[in-house]
């Protein structure tokens, strides 16, 4: 794993949270994107090398809606950048971690993603992210 790529924060109101974090971090939201397959709308902010992903449920049965209903708004996951997501998934499986998906899937911000089950990661939802290579 190369570095912390971002911290994901579950929010009920993306616009209000975006305004709050713009003031807090003294920066602006640089990207808003919907990931239909995950039932989530995201907003990204960056301050220096640090990125925050705000996550709002776009459907009542999405993982973010369930998270907020159970735990309220707050830190949802921590994402780590990897060079080869498939190799990292295989390594983690070999170490006994449970992955929430068998194959990497497209995520927000031009990334391939895979999640590690929090029950096997000390109660923390861990996301692996690999930059998608643009087509030539």
TrEMBL record:
Keywords: Isomerase, Metal-binding
Family: Belongs to the methylmalonyl-CoA epimerase family.
CDD domains reported in the protein's UniProt record: MMCE
Molecular functions (GO terms): metal ion binding; methylmalonyl-CoA epimerase activity
Gene Ontology BP, a term: L-methylmalonyl-CoA metabolic process
Pfam families: Glyoxalase_4
Organism listed in the record: Mucilaginibacter corticis
Keyword Transmembrane helix tagged: no
EC number: 5.1.99.1
Keyword Plastid assigned: no
NCBIfam families hit by this protein: metmalonyl_epim
Protein name, as recorded: Methylmalonyl-CoA epimerase
Domain VOC residues, every copy: 3-131
Alphabetical list of InterPro entries matching this protein: Glyas_Bleomycin-R_OHBP_Dase, MeMalonyl-CoA_epimerase, MMCE/EMCE_epimerase, VOC_core
